[in-house]
Amino acid sequence: MTTGFCLESGVPFFNLMITFWYGITSFVFAAVLFFPVRKLLMAININRIQNKNKRAVTEEEVLALRKKVNIIAAIISVTFAFFYNKFMIVQFFPS
């Protein structure tokens, strides 16, 4: 008699592995996406501030902006990674 979470039962173990794989790959994908998204957001915001104020951005403004951009980039990266991964898993591993 099997408990449902062993190799002999098959399907529940496969579903458990897919869930684990979904979580791990989503966080890895989010980590990979974080750096280019952060760089893009920094460039957009620095250019916006420079055009608005007609002067160069100071180092203090860059540090304050970097804190805000890190949070926004993390939210965007994690959200996109989980949605994209969910779409890919549903497409290739229908339940």
Order of helix and strand elements from N to C terminus: HH
Identify low-pLDDT runs: 1-5
Helix count from the secondary structure assignment? 2
Inertia-based shape? rod-shaped
On the 0 to 100 scale, the average pLDDT is: 87
What percentage of amino acids are in beta strands? under 5%
Radius of gyration from CA coordinates:
21 Å
**Count of folded domains:** 1
Assign the structural class, choosing from mainly alpha, mainly beta, alpha/beta, alpha+beta, or little secondary structure.
Answer: mainly alpha
What is shown here, in short?
The protein has one domain. Mean pLDDT is 87; it is low at 1-5. With 95 residues, it is mainly alpha-helical.
Walk me through this protein's architecture.
With 95 residues, the protein is mainly alpha-helical. It has one domain. It has helices spanning 11-53, 59-92. Helix 1 packs antiparallel against helix 2 (59-92). The longest helix is centred in the middle third of the chain and has 43 residues, at 11-53. The model is unreliable at 1-5 (pLDDT under 50).
Would you spell out the secondary-structure blueprint of this structure?
Elements: H1 11-53, H2 59-92
Features:
single chain, 95 residues, mainly alpha
